[in-house]
Amino acid sequence: MKYIFIINPAAGQGKARSYWLPQIQRLVKERNIEYELHNTLSFQEGINYIRQRCESGEEIRFYGCGGDGTLNCLVNGVYGYSNASIGVLPTGTGNDFIRSFTDPKAFQDLERQLDGEVQKLDAIKCTDSSGTKISLNMCNIGVDAAVAVEAGEMKKKPLLSGALAYGAAAVKVLSGTIGFPARVQIDDEEPYEKYFLFVAIGNGGFCGGGFHSTPLSKLDDGLMDVCLVDNISRMKIATVIMKYRAGTHLTDKSCEGIVTYKKCKKMTLTPLCPYDEHVERIVLDGEASDFLETTFEIVPEAVNFIVPRGCEML
Question: What is the Cα 78 distance to its own chain's centre?
């Protein structure tokens, strides 16, 4: 078996390589492991490289040194290849996917990672007019997606990183146009149309640096969790967002009549506003693109994921 470490040079403000490389070099030598290092030049280059290596047919473990976006690169690279497994060595800002496990700190221990067991996880297949992408964690549209995109821009500025960037981004986004009209069809239910504040389609449970958006989600239950939050007045937004972050928005009385939560296998989400008037963004595991009509489908047991020794799914 071969071990390939995919390093995102931009992750963690450039710390991915300096943090993980010394540990990788020490342990592969101690264990006499056959390994390779690959620095990604871009998101698509990373996917292409992974697919090329998977074509060999040999058993490969890919470890992504970076954040949720790096993990998304790995997922889209190995999707469809049964000989490949993926793990994540977190160095990103949010590191939201690993929050769906009992011991997120285990992912920082390379020895436990190398001893990890492979488990089959579901994934979400997202298809629009531009093609098909795979999400392992969560897809977001609306305010939370706009904040994630804006935070990514703000992190490029001096003195703004992590929580500070997200906080500043939230203030900017909430001071502008919020809410978007969309048509939603879930499985074979009758479609309905509303203005939404945000929409989350989850396989995992967390996004945005710890928001527990889909608190009932399971990574291997063959279903995806959809959380629809209606557009509301600015006076109520702060309260709802606090509950949304804590994962209590399904039970708290202040969110009654605002939140719709479904478990399903398929959903189609169609923007209804003129495209040139108000462009929403969709964020798939940290990777952003323009929001077009999108169909989301759960793919059971889609990805072989390396769970560190002594760690379990929530």
Answer: 16
Instruction: Indicate if 197 and 285 belong to the same structural domain.
Output: yes
Question: Does residue 258 form part of some domain?
Answer: yes
Establish if 109 belongs to a structural domain. no
- Does 216 reside within a domain? yes
Under 8 Å between Cβ of 199 and 140: yes
Which structural domain range is residue 52 located in?
Answer: 2-92
pTM across the whole model:
0.94
Domain count, the chain: 2
| E strand or H helix that includes residue 289 | strand 287-290
Query: What is the Cα–Cα distance from 138 to 210, expressed in whole angstroms?
Result: 12
pLDDT tens-digit readout, 224-252: 999 999 999 888 898 998 999 999 999 99
Residues 296 and 149 in one domain: yes
**Is 145 part of any domain?**
yes
| 239 φ/ψ angles, rounded to the nearest 5 degrees | -65, -45
CA 259/CA 231 separation, integer angstroms: 10
Give the relative orientation of helices 43-54 and 68-78 as an angle to the nearest 10 degrees. 40
